[in-house]
From TrEMBL:
Superkingdom to which the source organism belongs: Eukaryota
Protein name: Beta-xylanase
GO MF: cellulose binding; endo-1,4-beta-xylanase activity
Residues of the full protein shown: 80 to 393 of 395
UniProt record similarity statement: Belongs to the glycosyl hydrolase 10 (cellulase F) family.
Native source organism of the sequence: Lentinula aciculospora
Amino acid sequence: TAKSNTVAQAAGKKYFGSATDNPEFTDAAYLAILSDNTYFGQITPGNSMKWDATEPEQGTFTFSGGDAVVSLAQGNSQLVRGHNCVWYNQLPSWVSSGSWTNATLTAAVQNHCSTLVSHYKGDIWDIINEPFNDDGTWRSDVFYNTMGTSFVDVALIAARAADPNAKLYINDYNIEGTGAKATAMMSLVSDLKSRGIPIDGVGLQGHFIVGEVPTTMQTVMEQFVALGVEVAITELDIRMTLPETDALLEQQKTDYQNVISACNAVTGCVGVTIWDYTDKYSWVPSTFSGQGAACPWDANLVKKPAYDGIIAGF
Ligand code: XIL
């Protein structure tokens, strides 16, 4: 049968990838599939490069979890997507509950991004994650509340200086179809471009629900690309209300195919990453009560109809 990364590259994409997480590396059967670069040409650490994992105390950096992901990827000739530098979630309390001024938080963001991106030099980085609310307003978090929108500039400039070769992204969800949040992201990209702030790409996370994939994905991706950035689908999964049925699995196959086809139709859409490849390790059941079965491989590491949808989409 056709292999997802091989097929993606034959279609002109840079990669088809998967998220993973360090505890999963002790599962030999899981690791064997993850390490097959005909399936996955890229991996994203699901947790081990986040702020709480990498700078648990101010100025003390712990790279071991992320290093394990990088060394796995290097051994398999896979690209790494660094994830992430600045996000409101999974912050150590010294960041989320610190008493900050604009100047002190600017220095902390600068140091965090610079240290992270220079340690994990290479491929692709989600520098900013989830900056907007669903209505397109800025998320009220410690960064925005202390620094205004300048946290975006500060992080991107520090990242570019730390590794001029890395592709720097802003990543968010509910920007995959037209609407206020996608429009807000486009305004941000235009503004950054007009002021010469480094920005290379926009990540569309793609956490979808079976039967509810936006029909305007290709349009939105073309609009981003027209602003002079690349795009990628960075965290694709398509969940359903359990229990799974044959009908839901067939709809899920169609949904995966439609997402891949939309990326495939846009030259500037460089790749697709699924948010882990198997239902065994999906974040969905523990996050969305009663939902699951969101990945293309089932909990026994057997391919589902969704996998064939991915192949058909490229
Ligand atoms: C998720 C991880 O997969 C979980 O293991 C963790 O408990 C919470 O975060 N959007 C993102 C990712 O950008 O970092 C999130 O990852 C899923 C939603």
